[in-house]
Every structure is written in structure tokens, then in C-alpha cells.
Write a structure and sequence with these properties.
Distance between the termini: 88 Å
CATH topology: TIM Barrel
Number of domains: 1
Number of strands: 9
Order of helices and strands: HEHEHHEHEHEEEHHEHHEH
Number of helices: 11
Length: 323
């Protein structure tokens, strides 16, 4: 008697038997600092005199160590002392800053003047000229030859306190704002800014409106928009944009943002910053084009709020909202 065993075929689909080895990467987030909030649907507010667009100049006056440390470069980096690149930057403090100052005076433009405190030892008359015209001084480290992110927590807090005290002693201003040299931070920077009694940071370029940043201290700090696009270093030096194109970029940004504030469906109050460095835009052929852009903005002065980052922060603190 013959026995026949049945032949059984197993059909399977890989989706039932395949074990996916991928595990989603867990991203570190800034939820502890601020929540995600779309530019749409926020609580509306107005700038002083019911303006919708706040415009400010972030004018960076920086000082570098000769023969060592960091620095922007216009040509090939040489063995120290790298006189080509150092002297190009020093032109800004000897010549460019004064040409720019004349332009700002001609147009009656205020500036948020970001300074390295080592300038008090090198060219104090430069800082004095901006103080005398009533400009806001903003802490920007002691020198741009160092990155703040390379410091220990104790060193970083010491830097923040030193710059605040130095500016108060030399210029009589109580500094409320900060921009780190090279926009460099540690994980503790917002907490240390609050601990050192700063009211706002310019380090974060992720919004067109100010917003509150949570800290480990009893008070938050404000993030005031500061541009990394509308900025002469990344545009002119890194991307090799011409002076004419950079000027047109400022005009285009102004036109578009002014239109955005006037949206018939959802008008918004926005901040437009322009970041400048005298060793770049203070060169005569670049200054000519910067003048064209700023004159264009000046013709719409009645439609905007020409201001400083500190005034923007002060206004936000009067409002009972968090953007």
C-alpha cells in the first residue's frame, strides 16, 4: 500500500515576514526653548505709530588680533602674520566706518551698532562717534578673533558680564542685546544671557517676528530677527555677489516684506534687518550701491518704523503676547 504525503507550498509576502531594521532617528529639538509656531495665525500686533514693517541696520564694528585667531578673508590665507587679510579688515576701522557714518548721517538712519569691546583699546573714537549720534550699542564679544562656542560655561558667562560692564563704564549705556562673535553659541548661551541680564539675542535667524526664548533663569529672553541672507559677509564674500546685486537684494527684500505686511487677508508686523560690516560695504565702489539701496528705503520712511533692535525688544516687552 502506497502512501503519498501532500506537497504543501508556502506562499508569503515579504511585507509579512520582513523585519525592518530602521529605527527613526530621534532628533534633538529646541522644544525646551520655544514651541513651533507658524507665521500664520499668530496674535496680531502693531509697531509704534501703527507701522507694520520695522527696519534696522545691524552695523558690525569688529576688531581682530594681529598674527593669530579667526578673521574673515578676502584672499588666500597665508602663514601668520597674514597681513593681506588683516589689513583688509583694518581698513574698516580706519576708513570704511567713517564713510558709512557719513552716509547714515546724510539719511538720518539710526543704527544698532554691534561692537567688540577691544575697540575701546584700539579706536575708542569710533565707538564715541556712534554714541554721540544716539545709536544703540550691542554686545558682540571682546574680539572676533575668538569663537564664543569654544569657551567653558564659566568663561562664557565672564565674557557676557565683562562686555556689559565695559560698555557701561566707557560709554554709559546699559547694553541689553547680544550677537555672538561668528554667531557661535554653546548649549547654555540663552541661559547665560538671561543670567547676565541681557534682554535679547540676535543669534537666531529663524523668524521674521520676535519671539520669546525660554531659559533656566526666572525670565526668558527675546529673539530679535537678525539676517544671515541680507548680510554682506555671506553674500558678498562667500557667495561672491556683486555690490550692485547686493544693493538690489536689499531693495527686493524691502519691497516684498512691505507687501507682506499689507496682505489683505492677514496683515502682519515684521522685522527687516540689514547686516553690514565697514571693511566690506565701506569700500568706495560698494558704498555707492549701498547708498542707492538705503535712499530707496528712506523714500518710504513714512510707511515704516526705522529703528534699532533694542527698541524692537522694548516694544515687544510692552505687549501682552508671545510671538
Amino acid at each position: 500500500m502506497a502512501y503519498f504525503l501532500p506537497i504543501i507550498y508556502f506562499y508569503y509576502s515579504p511585507k509579512y515576514f520582513f523585519v525592518n531594521p530602521y529605527k527613526p532617528y530621534v532628533l534633538k529639538s529646541l522644544d525646551a526653548r520655544y514651541p513651533y509656531r507658524s507665521i500664520r495665525g499668530r496674535v496680531d500686533f502693531l509697531w509704534p505709530k501703527e507701522k507694520r514693517l520695522a527696519v534696522y541696520l545691524g552695523f558690525n564694528i569688529e576688531n581682530f588680533s594681529f598674527g593669530e585667531g579667526l578673521g574673515a578673508n578676502i584672499g588666500p590665507v597665508s602663514k601668520q602674520p597674514d597681513v593681506l587679510n588683516y589689513m583688509w579688515r583694518d581698513y574698516g576701522n580706519r576708513v570704511g566706518v567713517w564713510r558709512c557714518l557719513d552716509l547714515f548721517d546724510q539719511l538720518n538712519f539710526p543704527t544698532g551698532t554691534l561692537i567688540n569691546t577691544s575697540l575701546y583699546d584700539y579706536c575708542p573714537e569710533v565707538i564715541k562717534a556712534f554714541v554721540e549720534r544716539g545709536d544703540e550699542l550691542i554686545g558682540h564679544g571682546h574680539t572676533n578673533s575668538q569663537r564664543q562656542s569654544d569657551m567653558s560655561q564659566e568663561e562664557e558667562l565672564g565674557l557676557l558680564r565683562y562686555c556689559k560692564e565695559k560698555i557701561k563704564k566707557e560709554s554709559g549705556q546699559n547694553v541689553t542685546g547680544w550677537l555672538s562673535p561668528w554667531i557661535s553659541e554653546t548649549f547654555e548661551t540663552p541661559d547665560l544671557l538671561a543670567q547676565a541680564n541681557y534682554d535679547y539675542t540676535l543669534n537666531w535667524c529663524n523668524d521674521d517676528q520676535p519671539f520669546l526664548v525660554k531659559t533656566t533663569q526666572s525670565v526668558p529672553i527675546w529673539s530679535i530677527p537678525y539676517p544671515q541672507e541680507l548680510n554682506d559677509i555671506p553674500m558678498i564674500i562667500h557667495r561672491q555677489m556683486s555690490s550692485d546685486d547686493f544693493s538690489q537684494m536689499i531693495i527686493d527684500q524691502f519691497d516684498e516684506m512691505l507687501d507682506q505686511t499689507r496682505s489683505p487677508n492677514a496683515p502682519q508686523s515684521l522685522v527687516m534687518g540689514i547686516a553690514l560690516h565697514p571693511y566690506i560695504v565701506g569700500q568706495p565702489y560698494r558704498l555707492k550701491h549701498l547708498r542707492r539701496a538705503l535712499q530707496y528705503i528712506a523714500r518710504s520712511r513714512q510707511d515704516i518704523w526705522l529703528t534699532t533692535p533694542g527698541e524692537i525688544c522694548s516694544h515687544m516687552r510692552t505687549l501682552t503676547l508671545s510671538c
